[in-house]
Amino acid sequence: MDWSKAKSILIFAFLALNIYLLFQLLTETWATEVVTNDNTSITQILDQRNVDPAKLPRMGRDIGYLTGSSEEMSAAMITKNREAQLATTLDNMQLEVELKQPVPLDAKDLRTTASTFVAEYVPFGNEYAYWRYDEKTRQVAFVQTFEDNKIFSAPEVEGGTEMYIGPSLILIQLNESFEVTDYKQRHLKDLSSKTQDDLVLTASEAISQLASRKYFQPNQEMRAINTGFYSLPLDSSGSLIIMPPLWSIGIDDQVYFVNAIDGTVEHVEFETKE
Length: 274
Description:
Layout: H1 3-32, H2 42-48, E1 65-70, E2 85-90, E3 94-104, H3 110-121, E4 128-134, E5 139-146, E6 149-152, E7 157-159, E8 162-164, E9 169-174, E10 179-185, E11 188-194, H4 203-212, E12 222-230, E13 232-233, E14 241-243, E15 245-251, E16 254-259, E17 265-268, E18 272-273
Helix pairs in contact: 2-4
Protein name: Two-component system regulatory protein YycI
Organism: Exiguobacterium profundum
Pfam families: YycI
């Protein structure tokens, strides 16, 4: 064996390995120093807004789109406290229920008592999680979940002369005494997660998207940041629904959805408190 030649090969191999490792280190460093339109790095953005990057949640880089379809709803789905509910459907897609007698909730513990109501009255209740309470309309919103991630959708959308709610929502209507008078529900079925090759935005990158659009100023407070999905009907029938992963970010009293695939931002017009 030509030891001199072998030695040279080993030296070049180690040199190539060192170059590769250096490239990887530089790539990670550059990724953390991505800049916004005003040349402010993500690190600076977080520091200016008192956000600790170590406390931010993580989203798996291999997470993909969630797909599903709208459940055909019927009054027969109500199996709990059925005698207390008068149910109809809208286009067989939306369950609309009026209670014969209002059910009181505790205004000081709305999340808990509303969750109890959903579990005891609403079909598929165990698949939903509390989202928000709208003080203006006195509506409590619950969203369907998939593997501990909330599936967000528009709180309410007009459809002709009727009102349709988002395909993953329960909207509970309260009166001035914090009693449930009626609710509307839509439900997604055949949920399936589809992995894809696109890298998702990190929590830090999602925050920088809000900052670059002036939605998150240094004098504002980030109250919450969570992972989830957002329902996007593929066609007008809603037979197939595609849901990209997102970051739900609460800034002061506003909520923003940041698409974790393409970085687009949607402001949720929901004048509420958690």
